[in-house]
């Protein structure tokens, strides 16, 4: 399409007389002056280029408004070695309280009950050296400071973070249909979604929480718009438009964070990722009470091949008294809760629990992605090479942690990413999972 152009003859007067938005005219005024009226009037102005400039300006204003909503005034600011800025926000000023239903909410500072029957995390594994079980894991920003009491650490959202999203509205949200659906054997649905999984799951009962200890790696990502994660899913409803989901684990997502660091994350949705929910604290919903752990911040250190293994424990459970869904990180950090009113089905209980890995396969040039899941090694390679989940449990209606009954597995393409379950006295129910993506058997 050829741009409509105006010569310099009478350009200034003509453009100033034109109708249209005062805002657009204000944005373009200086450009018009330079192009049409400057340099003796020898320039040309492209209307389509000018319109694009106006669009960029509007987007910039939209991004700035969104950043102002997300980034609350800090009590203290900590610069992390990885480039993150961690803002210590007063607990009552966090993004959750932008929600209209939470305007007068009284923060629940601790759960009414913890689940009974937690595993002893200090047990020695029969599958690996003792030091692989006791290595401390932390977040990188701790190297440069901590947040004071009555504040929570919030990773500051930068302009570039929002601009990497497809739109301001979609920033911090997962794509629709990214959920693993074990009961589906529809290959078209699998190919359309672009998401691939290797999971273990239980269904057929009412579940009130789940726990797992998750091996932490830093998988390689082929394309910036792809990601790799290891998480647990707490699911309610159907896999249609009404799916409720609470998710937590670690992920590497260049698109979301702008780097390849392994980061702690959470997610929630009450309508199958359509309009509700988000990662971490990027919308109102999750209420954080903990001043030590920042959602979306880098985890350090991570596991290395044939070397020290590091893992994190995550527990999510429903408070039997208040009905809120709580999250605990490790044995020491109760992070906060999702108020039950956010959900429909999960206001009562979950109908399925899933644990495992997920990657995005954007299939560049028609080939399978080489984005790694877990460690990038297949399950049969075992401890020190393959990634694992251990001590996986569910919370029953009596608020007891129990071994999962009838554990199933699911993967769309086992030649690309696979899963293998097992059980023993130290690790309880566990599984190895993951893979390299593209390889001679997965093209």
Automatic annotation (TrEMBL):
Protein origin, superkingdom: Eukaryota
Name by which UniProt lists this protein: Neprosin PEP catalytic domain-containing protein
Record PROSITE patterns: NEPROSIN_PEP_CD
Keyword Membrane: yes
Keywords: Membrane, Transmembrane, Transmembrane helix
Residue ranges crossing the lipid bilayer per the database entry: 26-51
Region annotated Disordered, chain positions: 169-190
Domain Neprosin PEP catalytic: 189-443
Compositional bias ranges of the Basic residues kind: 171-180
InterPro entries xref list: Glutamic_endopeptidase, Neprosin, Neprosin_propep
């Amino acid at each position: 399409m050829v741009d409509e152009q105006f010569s310099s003859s009478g350009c200034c007067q003509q453009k100033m007389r034109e109708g249209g938005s005062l805002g657009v005219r204000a944005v373009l005024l200086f450009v018009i002056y330079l192009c049409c009226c400057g340099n003796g009037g020898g320039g040309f102005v492209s209307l389509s280029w000018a319109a694009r400039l106006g669009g960029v300006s509007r987007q910039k204003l939209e991004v700035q408004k969104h950043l102002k909503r997300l980034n609350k005034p800090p009590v203290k600011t900590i610069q992390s070695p990885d480039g993150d800025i961690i803002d210590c926000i007063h607990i009552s000023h966090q993004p959750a309280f932008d929600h209209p239903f939470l305007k007068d909410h009284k923060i629940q500072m601790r759960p009414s009950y913890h689940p009974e029957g937690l595993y002893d995390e200090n047990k020695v594994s029969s599958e690996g050296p003792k030091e692989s079980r006791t290595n401390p894991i932390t977040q990188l920003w701790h190297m440069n400071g901590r947040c004071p009491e009555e504040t929570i650490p919030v990773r500051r959202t930068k302009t570039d973070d929002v601009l990497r999203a497809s739109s301001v509205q979609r920033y911090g949200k997962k794509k629709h249909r990214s959920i693993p659906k074990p009961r589906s054997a529809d290959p078209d649905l699998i190919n359309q979604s672009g998401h691939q999984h290797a999971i273990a799951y239980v269904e057929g009962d009412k579940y009130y929480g789940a726990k797992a200890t998750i091996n932490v790696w830093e998988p390689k990502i082929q394309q910036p718009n792809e990601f790799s994660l290891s998480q647990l899913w707490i699911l309610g409803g159907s896999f249609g438009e009404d799916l409720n989901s609470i998710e937590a684990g670690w992920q590497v997502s260049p698109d979301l964070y702008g780097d390849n660091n392994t980061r702690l994350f959470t997610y929630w949705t009450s309508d199958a990722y359509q309009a509700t929910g988000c990662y971490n604290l990027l919308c109102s919903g999750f209420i954080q009470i903990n001043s030590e752990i920042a959602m979306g911040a880098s985890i350090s250190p991570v596991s290395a091949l044939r070397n020290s293994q590091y893992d994190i424990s995550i527990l999510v459970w429903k408070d039997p008294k208040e009905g809120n869904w709580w999250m605990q990180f490790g044995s020491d950090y109760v992070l906060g809760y999702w108020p039950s009113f956010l959900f429909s089905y999960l206001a009562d209980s979950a109908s399925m629990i899933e644990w495992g890995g997920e990657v995005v396969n954007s299939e560049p040039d028609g080939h399978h992605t080489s984005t790694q899941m877990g460690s990038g090694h297949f399950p049969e390679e075992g401890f020190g090479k393959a990634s694992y989940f251990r001590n996986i449990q569910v919370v029953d209606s009596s608020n007891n942690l129990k071994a999962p009954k009838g554990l199933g597995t699911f993967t769309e393409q086992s030649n690309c990413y696979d899963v293998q379950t097992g059980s023993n006295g130290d690790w309880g129910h566990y599984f190895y999972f993951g893979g390299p993506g593209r390889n001679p058997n997965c093209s």
